[in-house]
Amino acid sequence: MIYIIMPVIFIAGIIAIAFEDALRINKAATAIGMSVLLWMMVLADGTNMFNMNGSEMLETMIKNIPSFSELSVSEQVYKFLEFSIVESLGDVSETLFFVLGSMAIIELVDSHGGFEIIVNSITTRNKRKLLWIISFLTFFLSSLLGNLATVIVVVALLRRIIGERADRLIFAGMTIIAANAGGAWSPIGDVTTLLLWTGGTITVLHQVTQLILPSLAMMSVPLIYTTFTFSKDAVCKSPKQEKQDPFLAKIDPRFKRMLLVTGLISLGSVPVLQSLLHLPPFMGILLGLSIMWVMTDRRWTGRMIPVIQELRVQRVFSRIDVPTVLFFLGILMSVASLKTAGHLGQMSGFLDSVMPSPEVISLVLGVTSSFLDNVALVAGTIGMYPLAAAGPFMTDGNFWTFLAYCAVTGGSILIIGSASGVTVMGLEKIPFGYYLKKFSLLALLGYFAGAAVYLLLF
Predict the structure, then answer these.
(1) I need a surface site. Which of 110, 148, 429, 440 has the fewest CB within 10 A?
(2) Of 376, 375, 350, 373, nearest to 361 (Cα)?
């Protein structure tokens, strides 16, 4: 009975996460509570679950650890579950430390006004030209900063450039699509691609070379259509200029540039370090953070002005979105509990029996990610399909590569389908119906256009 209830709880939790605004319950609280409850259920009924479903890893432990076989069946199951929790937490921690480090780097650059350099470099106010500049800037920036951080930066940029709210909403909608498209072809562009990369399912060079063109196609369809909603000579009205923070104004522009470049290099070099030195991604990102930590400490130590002290890394950590990190912890540990109990293995068998090909599974999961959390979907999929030596489920196989595209870009179909969409929705107060009417169909057409490009090429 407990075994049957577990997936029901998981689905209910995912639905609650999707409607967190209506329920007024933070998604992190739901995810953390769900993960603890699921592991409690596994521990409470572990013996029955393993008798019913079995476990290859449990059988391996019995064979390879002599003292293990001397324990009773219930003790064996408990020991294995204890081992599974520790192993799962170890795998999840790699992702969490990467997310935490990248958030700190981006916040550090932003707090010093580093992104102002990008803002000041955009001089055109022609709506059509500006739309293309913003879209491509978002597309490439999200491959380095991640789509969530990118939309925060770009929305702040739009507020400094575009005065009319009606125009800004159109740009914001296009920003969501471009950010998710850009996040799909980079291993650090989205949490789901990060999960696929750290899980060993895809490699950096393969992902970039095979998904950049489908991702461009996905963005181009809505971008071309949206361009013609503006007249050829339409110009954006500038917003009222706000006074610049006097302390930010005093920061040496060369130091701002240095921090921006160092931050971008720190993020962009993570895949390179992993490929060349096999350095885990979280260690690469922490290396970049430590370098920037030294730079800022050397700059501001001894300057006891309170506002300047807010620029130091220890203060930056207080502004990081910790609930988001805890949300990832809850989701990934919840999926790990279902994998340990055997649910994901059964689900993969069911999907194989009803879906004609792995590519169709990826395509359906992508559409599903428009209303269910794509982190949970991808984490669950990784648990369902072990890496194979050959075929579509091998490292860099078609299933995993296509899933990276589908899971990220599918989140653009609805504004609640991705973290970047929900973030922009909150920042610009975009109504759900507005995005549904203006962009959902365009995003869906772009999604299938990019999928067609991938399937035709590969």
Answers:
(1) 429
(2) 350
The span from the CA of 129 to the CA of 59, in Å, is 62
User: What secondary structure letter does DSSP report for 388?
Assistant: B
CB 242 within 8 A of CB 171: no
- Measure the CA–CA gap between 161 and 124, rounded to whole angstroms: 10
Contact partners, residue 165, CB within 8 Å, separation at least 6: none
Among 58-72, 223-237, 395-409, the range scoring the smallest mean pLDDT is 58-72
The distance of Cα 328 from the centroid of its chain, to the nearest Å, equals: 9
Give the Cα separation of 300 and 308 in Å (integer).
7
For the packed helices 56-64 and 73-111, what is the interaxial angle rounded to 10 degrees? 110
pLDDT at 62 over 70: no
Token pair in block for residue 101: 């480090």
Q: Decide if 175 contacts 148 (C-beta within 8 A).
A: no
**What confidence tens digit (pLDDT) does each residue in 295-323 have?**
988 888 777 677 777 788 888 888 887 88
- Listing DSSP states for 179-198 in one string gives HHHHHHTSTTSSHHHHHHHH
Residue 362, class by beta-carbon neighbours within 10 Å (0-12 exposed, 13-18 middle, 19+ buried)? buried
pLDDT band at residue 216 using 50, 70 and 90 as cut-offs: very high
Sort residue 24 into left (φ over 0), alpha (ψ -120 to 50) or beta.
left
CA distances from 117 to 102, 123, 229, 312 (A): 20, 12, 29, 20
The alpha carbons of the chain give a radius of gyration, in whole angstroms, of: 23
Please, which residues have CB within 8 angstroms of residue 84's CB and are 6 or more apart in sequence? 57, 336, 340
Distance of alpha carbon 102 from alpha carbon 192, whole angstroms: 15
CA proximity to 430, closest of 445, 446, 444, 414 = 414
Q: What is the pTM of this model?
A: 0.76
pLDDT band at 170 (very low <50, low <70, confident <90, very high): very high
Residues belonging to the chain: 458
In angstroms, the CA 120 to CA 134 distance is 13
Is residue 244's pLDDT more than 70? no
In DSSP terms, 388 is beta-bridged to 394
DSSP letter assigned to residue 25: -
Q: Would residue 302 be called left, alpha or beta, if left means φ above 0 and alpha means ψ between -120 and 50 degrees?
A: left
